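Propose amino acids for all 228 sites.
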């Protein structure tokens, strides 16, 4: 460093006047950590600190999580996972979990929860603290009329069905047997579900037997091959 405009009585050009002087060249500082808030920092110290920091992308999506780019741990990139100000998380793509998936109504004092557990001997779907309802909405945003088809009762071995339960050879095949709880009807062997049948006629003759045969055939529990 050379001081311009300063006349040293000793001829030392490294000194700079407090006011009105000009420096040319580089100012060399000790390559050590600054000790006070206003202390000058050397280039070596600044380079060391900057090298340990992660560098971000030129732009990012608001509220997006930052992801590491590469394996250095010092380069960040944008992400499609968004964390809202209300704590909601929006994920684009698949959610992969290596453990149990737990959903509760509270982190601190939960009163009801359900989980999908893979840590046991099998794949378990479990719930506790409240009934579990299975419902359907006509739209993907859960708008429209809600239809509740099933309720798993909490604390009891009871499943409540409010729909026609169809037993089939495969999920898209023809109906084989039906239990229609909402309509209070039954159907077997492919027959349409019908209401409870009434058997009538005198038991002294064949009228009651004929009526019974007709009722069972209506349920499709038998094939009526009798003759009059």
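Proposal:
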């Amino acid at each position: 460093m050379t001081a311009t405009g300063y006349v040293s009585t000793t001829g030392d050009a490294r000194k700079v006047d407090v006011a009105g002087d000009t420096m040319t060249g580089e100012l060399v500082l000790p390559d050590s950590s600054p000790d006070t808030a206003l202390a000058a920092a050397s280039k070596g110290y600044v380079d060391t600190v900057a090298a340990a920091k992660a560098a971000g992308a030129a732009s990012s999506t608001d509220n997006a999580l930052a992801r590491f780019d590469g394996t250095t741990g010092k380069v960040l990139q944008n992400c499609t996972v968004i964390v809202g100000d209300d704590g909601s998380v929006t994920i684009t793509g698949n959610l992969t979990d290596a453990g149990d998936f737990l959903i509760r109504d509270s982190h601190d004092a939960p009163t009801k929860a359900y989980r999908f557990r893979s840590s046991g001997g099998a794949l378990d779907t479990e719930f506790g603290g409240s009934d579990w309802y299975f419902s359907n909405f006509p739209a993907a945003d859960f708008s429209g009329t809600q239809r509740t088809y099933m309720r798993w009762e909490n604390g009891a071995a009871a499943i409540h069905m409010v729909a026609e339960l169809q037993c089939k050879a495969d999920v898209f095949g023809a109906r084989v047997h039906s239990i229609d709880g909402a309509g209070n009807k039954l159907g077997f062997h492919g027959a349409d579900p019908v209401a409870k049948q009434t058997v009538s006629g005198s038991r002294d003759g064949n009228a009651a037997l004929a009526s019974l045969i007709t009722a069972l055939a209506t349920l499709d529990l038998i094939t009526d091959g009798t003759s009059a």
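Residues 186 and 228 are 28 Å apart (CA to CA). Residues 207-218 form the longest helix (12 residues).
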